[in-house]
Amino acid sequence: MGLFNNYEKPGKGIEKDAPKKKGIFLFFELLWRKLGLLIKSNMLYFFVSLPVILIYHFASFFALSTLTGSSEHSSQTILICTVLLTVLWGTGPASCGYTFLMRSFAREEHVFLTPDFFDKIKENFKLGIVMMLADIIVLITGAIAVKFYIGMYQSGYTFGKYIVCVLIIAAMIYTFLHYYVYQFGVTFENKIYATIKNSLIMAFAAMPMNILLTIIIGTITFFALSFFTPIAIVLLMVFFWLSFMRFPIDFYSARVIKRKLIDTMQKPEGEE
Length: 272
Known about the structure:
This protein is an all-alpha fold. Helix content is 78%, strand content 0%.
C-alpha cells in the first residue's frame, strides 16, 4: 500500500554551509540522493505506461521487419528498441506525470510522488495523447518511407539517398523535441501548438548537448542490454533502467529551461 506514498520526508540532507554543487557533480549527487525515489518513480511509470510500451514493442518489430525485409529478429533486439523508444520518446500521457517528478528531482523541489504523478497526467492529458499518436505514426510511416527511398536508391535513383539522409536528420530532431515537450507541458500553461513549437526551438538551440545525451544513452542501453536475456531486460525496465537513462535528459532540460527562461523572466527589469 505504501510503496509509492513517499512525501519527501527530510533525512540527514546536506549541511547548511556545504558548497553548492553544479553541473555533473550535482547530477551524480542527486542521482544518489534520490535513488529510492527514482526506483519508485520508475516502477510507477512502467506500470502506467505498459499499454504504450507494448504498442512500442509491436511497432518496433514492424519497423525492423520493414527496414530489413525480414521478420527474423531476436526478442532481445526488439526489446532494446522498445527500451530506447520509451526512454527517448516517452509514453504520452504517463510521461507528463513522470516528467514532473523528474523535473522536481532535478530542481530539488518538493514532490508528492503518486498524487503529483496522476495530477500532471490529468492536466496535460491532451498533450500526451497528441504526442503518443504522433510517435506511433512517425515510427511506422518513417520506417516505410526509409525502406521505400532506400529501394529507389538501389534501383538507380540517386536522389533516394539524399531523401533518406533528410529523413534520418528529421528523426533526430523529432527525438530531441521529446526532451523538452513534456517539460514545457508541465511547466508552462500554453496551447499544444505553442508547447511543441517551443520544444522544437529548444531542440535546435541545445543541439550539441542533445546529440551528446542521445549518443551516451543509446550506446549504454544498446551495449549493456545486449548482455541480458529478454526476461532480465524486462525486469530492468520495471525496476530502474527507464529512470536511470531518462534522468540525465530531464536533469539537463529542466535546469536549462529554468536558467534560460524562468530565471530570465523573473529578473528585475534592467538587471543583466
